[in-house]
Amino acid sequence: MTSVVVDPADAQQVLYGTVTRDGVLVGSYYCTDRIRQTGWRALGPDGEHLVFGDEPVELTRDGDAIFLVMKNADSPA
Asked: What is the pLDDT of residues 8-17, one digit of tens each?
């Protein structure tokens, strides 16, 4: 997992990250509200949002987005 962090006024905020396994992209995640650091979205390796029904999954923490990406990678195609 690689995260890109910005550090405005020593606040260290994660902007987005990628998750790889054995050198292959598993997915990525990004923050939709950088001020509050909430509203995380997760994407699959094809760049499509991970969805529940027809709606993109919006999560409250970056760790939840990472978990969702990893669980999606474990799912059979």
From this structure: 677 778 888 8
Question: How far apart are alpha carbons 59 and 39 in whole angstroms?
Answer: 5
d(CA 14, CA 35): 11
Tokens of 57: 């999954």
What pTM value is reported for the model?
A: 0.78
Spell out the SS3 assignment of the chain: CEEEEECHHHCCEEEEEEEEECCEEEEEEEEEECCCCEEEEEECCCCCECEECCEECEECCHHHHHHHHHHHHHCCC
